[in-house]
Design brief:
Elements lengths: L1 H28 L2 H14 L4 H13 L3 H10 L6 H14 L3 H10 L5 H13 L3 H14 L5 H18 L14 H14 L2 H18 L8 H21 L3 H13 L5 H15 L4 H7 L8 H4 L2 H17 L3 H14 L4 H13 L3 H14 L4 H15 L2 H9 L8 H13 L3 H26 L7 H16 L3 H14 L4 H14 L1 H8 L5 H4 L5 H5 L17 H9 L44 H5 L12 H4 L17 H7 L13 H14 L6
Helix pairs in contact: 1-2, 2-3, 3-4, 4-5, 5-6, 5-7, 6-7, 7-8, 8-9, 9-10, 10-11, 11-12, 12-13, 12-14, 13-14, 14-15, 14-17, 17-18, 17-19, 18-19, 19-20, 20-21, 21-22, 22-23, 23-24, 24-25, 25-26, 26-27, 27-28
Length: 686
């Protein structure tokens, strides 16, 4: 039996040796799937072989089976201790997005190898601990020299760009030579964080040129890889265009990137979010389609916390614009639970309440937030004041604004309060706002002088507030109060002629004698005379009067001028035309220049009796003048055959002139003719 066991052991050892050589050969060729099969056969021979277990874990990692590899590690914890397999375990946790677990695994390792330090830097970057990450990469670059130096520098520049973008930290010059397109791209991102958009665009163009040049030397690059790299650069270019206000160009470039269908879900989510921000409350249907790209699987592991937060804010706003009130409340409440001190969630909730005409409830919500978070109370109270103004409650809005202590003395706040109080005709409150702001600057001035032990002149803001207060008081008739402000200004600057003139003008209405005394301080007209070139001033651009230059006289015109000398021709006045019926013996009508309706003798138009009688009475009835309406009875109608016995009547009435054809006697007839002649000859000037 012992001999048989020895023979079997020898056969097993020979098989294991053959399998190990197979594993080695497959590993060198990169065929990890086949190597994994050989390792499994080895483990069948020796299930607790540490080397075989390590090889199995490596093969699974190379094949992308991180979960299975981590399962092997956790199953054989007695054999695969943290000292043996720390890097592989931390790497699996990192790839499975278990970042906190990966950090614990790295920190628990007894020996910090270079591989663990590299992974430690990546973990810190994902956790957004940029200061620690920067220190880790600096240490790596300082203490290592191998073929991965360029990658470390790229990662270092990415950390600096993240600090500039998300933490608004001014990046320090690391002295990195921008020899690759990755370094140029990261440098552009850092410039965007600083607000240097034009320089950032140039860096991105340089990065694109570097990438296209590098394609000449790269043979195994696919078309998809090229499009993916360029899409990232072009997406950042479109973002700069959007920040610069070129939204149409940015939108066009964003849509071009989406049509390429890149595999990077993080890039697609960011581009979709930026398109939604361009659309705002317009083109809502397109925004609802784009928002689906932000919900892709794995997006939360590709973007930073602030990027994810911005996307969620825009989802809530989109729900509000599409009248999805419940969805808007749900999203904003979720955001508020994640970031209790953030302003946007409560502002979105208040906006949704305002859309539902619940303004009082919105103001109450904002007031509760301001009470719970005093640090952010200023911005919330500004929103509350805006809501009150929209409701027409100007006085309440002023009360809210005056409760913001850190903004009371600001010139913009003072101007807004004075304008609103003036609108409400509350002049006393407006003057009180000026007084409080001036007192604040005086107290601040006293504290500064006390601590510095050096007298400092009053600030320009302080003096400008005093001047504005004086002007306001003068405008609203508070002359005595304005005089004290003007005297304060004149004491600060006795050479200010404008202030002195205002002071004299104010005193002239209150105390003329004092005004006379102060007028002696005005400079004389000689001292105020300025050396002005009148000709240059008249010929300057924008002058209201320009002296015409005399044209040069040549030839006959010059001789005529010499012959005439100083004699000037007098223009003859043309005689006015007189009306044709003008009679010099008759005195003209003194009211002839007035319209007919305004003359004293105008009696109005005479209404015809026949017109008044037409259509009156019951249907079928006749009036006294109905015979006159008969056309057959008029003098102008042709004669008809007489009826028997009617000849006498016809002959009797044939010589009678009807009233319509009778001319009025005397003046009325001539007056009508004169009126007609005046209308025809109205241009005669009589």
């Amino acid at each position: 039996k012992m001999a048989a066991a020895a023979a079997a052991g020898g056969a097993g050892a020979a098989a294991a040796a053959a399998l190990w050589s197979e594993v080695n050969r497959c590993g060198q060729n990169g065929d990890f799937a086949r190597a994994l099969k050989s390792v499994n056969k080895i483990l069948q021979i020796s299930k607790d072989d540490v080397t075989a277990l390590q090889c199995k874990v490596v093969c699974l990692i190379q094949n992308g089976n991180f979960k299975e590899a981590l399962g092997v590690i956790n199953t054989h914890t007695k054999v695969l201790t943290s000292d043996v397999i720390a890097f592989e375990k931390a790497y699996c946790e990192y790839r499975l997005n278990r970042i906190e677990n990966a950090l614990k695994t790295i920190q628990s390792a007894s020996q910090q190898t270079d591989k663990l330090k590299e992974l430690y830097g990546q973990v810190l970057y994902r956790l957004e601990r940029y200061d620690d990450c920067l220190a880790a990469y600096r240490d790596l670059i300082r203490n290592s020299q191998d073929e991965y130096e360029e990658e470390r520098k790229t990662n270092l520049s990415a950390v600096v760009a993240a600090q500039s973008t998300w933490e608004k930290v001014m990046p320090e010059d690391l002295g990195l030579r921008e020899a690759t397109y990755e370094l140029c791209y990261n440098s552009a991102c850092a410039l965007i964080g600083q607000g240097k958009l034009n320089e950032a665009m140039k860096k991105l163009q340089k990065a694109e040129a570097f990438f296209l040049f590098a394609l000449i030397f790269l043979q195994d690059v696919t078309e998809e890889d090229i499009e993916a790299e360029l899409a990232i650069i072009h997406g950042q270019m479109a973002y700069i265009m959007q920040l610069q206000g070129h939204t149409e160009d940015a939108l066009q470039l964003y849509n071009q990137i989406i049509k390429l269908k890149p595999t990077d879900v993080g890039l697609l989510a960011v581009i979709a979010n930026n398109i939604i921000t361009i659309n705002k409350d317009q083109n809502v249907f397109d925004s609802k389609k784009k928002v689906k790209l932000t919900n892709a699987e794995g997006v939360e592991h590709k973007l930073s916390k602030k990027q994810l937060q911005a996307i969620e804010f825009n989802k809530a706003l989109l729900a509000m614009y599409t009248n999805q009130a419940d969805q808007c409340r749900k999203l904003s409440a979720s955001l508020q639970s994640q970031s209790p001190e953030h302003l946007l969630p409560v502002l979105i909730q208040a906006a949704q309440l305002c859309r539902e005409k619940q303004h009082a409830k919105a103001v109450g919500l904002l007031q509760d937030f301001a009470d719970q978070h005093p640090a952010n109370a200023a911005e919330i109270k500004l929103t509350m004041a805006q809501l009150k103004i929209a409701q027409g409650s100007i006085t309440k809005a002023c009360m809210i604004l005056r409760s913001i202590e850190e903004l009371q003395h600001k010139p913009g706040m003072v101007s807004a309060l004075v304008t609103m109080y003036s609108h409400e005709e509350d002049i006393d409150s407006a003057i009180e706002v000026f007084t409080q702001a001036i007192q604040w600057y005086q107290q601040f001035q006293a504290k500064t002088n006390y601590h510095c032990c050096v007298f400092q002149p009053k600030s320009p803001v302080h003096l400008s507030l005093i001047r504005e207060a004086a002007n306001f008081k003068l405008k609203h008739g508070r002359k005595k109060e304005a005089i004290s402000d003007l005297e304060e200004l004149w004491k600060q600057n006795p050479k200010d002629v404008h202030t002195l003139a205002q002071l004299i003008s104010a005193y002239s209405l209150v105390d003329p004698e004092k005004a006379k005394v102060l007028s002696k301080h005005l400079p004389s007209s000689d001292t105020m005379s300025l050396k002005v070139d009148v000709d240059a001033l008249e010929n300057s651009h924008g002058a209201t009067y320009v002296r015409k230059k005399a044209g040069k006289l040549t030839g006959d015109n010059q001789q005529k001028e010499q012959g005439q000398g100083d004699v000037k021709k007098k223009k003859k006045k043309k005689k006015g035309k007189l009306p044709k019926n003008y009679d010099p013996k008759v005195t003209p009508d003194p009211e002839r220049w007035l319209p007919m309706r305004e003359r004293s003798y105008y009696r109005g138009r005479k209404k015809g009796k026949k017109k008044d009688q037409v259509g009156k009475g019951t249907q079928g009835s006749t009036t006294a003048g109905s015979s006159e309406l008969d056309a057959s009875r008029t003098a102008s109608s042709p004669p008809t055959s007489p009826r028997p016995g009617s000849a006498a009547a016809v002959s009797a009435t044939s010589n009678v002139i009807p009233p319509r054809h009778q001319k009025p006697a005397g003046a009325p007839a001539t007056k009508k003719k004169q009126q007609q002649k005046k209308k025809k000859g109205a241009k005669g000037g009589w």
